[in-house]
Amino acid sequence: MNQNPRRVCLAKIATAHGVRGLVKLAVYANDPAHLEIHGPLYTSETGVETLKVSLHKPMNKYWLANIVGVTDRTAAERLRGTELWLPRDRLPETKEGEHYYADLIGKTVINSEGKDMGKVAAVHNFGAGDLLDIQPQAGKSFYLPFAGEYILEITGTVIRAHIPEGLAE
């Protein structure tokens, strides 16, 4: 059995809320319940430290939550910026056409003619939609929208995509 399975970042502690140790979470999971139902979450991609989260309610773009053992604002403030990770194999399988961002990272991107354009280094969302950060073998990385008109097919280790002219230069 894999002692350190690949992990997926489900949330990040944005800030403390109030004086009783509550925190605001930026939740990346489609279903925030994953933060609770799978037990303690790791505080890094490879470390052994964990935190147990109890969700309270949504608050604008955040979720208000309690971290077990955190009872005051000072302790909550110390957790600001902490990411919360879950082993990938503890998440449900995706449906047809769905993908976990973590599963896209490392895939080779080819254009519609079959030319290797690079590998997916990361997936970002700066507010206007999801972007694949593609790192070619040589040259600067570039962003490709993760949207139907650009992503033609995703199979095994390859993403076939329509790359607009001038984007990958």
Overview of the structural elements:
There is one protein chain. This protein has 169 residues and is mostly beta strands. The strands form three sheets. Strands 11-10-9-8-13-12 form a six-stranded mixed beta sheet. A five-stranded antiparallel beta sheet has the order 5-6-2-1-7. 8% of the residues lie in helices and 43% in strands. It has three helices and 13 strands; from the N terminus they run ββαββββαβαββββββ. The chain has helices at residues 34-37, 73-78, 101-104, and strands spanning 7-17, 22-27, 41-42, 50-51, 53-59, 62-67, 83-87, 108-111, 116-125, 130-135, 142-145, 151-155, 158-161. The longest helix is centred in the middle third of the chain and has 6 residues, at 73-78. The model has no long low-confidence stretch (mean pLDDT 89). The protein has two domains: 7-90, Beta Barrel (Elongation Factor Tu (Ef-tu), domain 3); 101-161, Roll (SH3 type barrels). The radius of gyration is 18 Å and the shape is elongated. A hairpin with a 4-residue loop joins strand 8 (108-111) and strand 9.
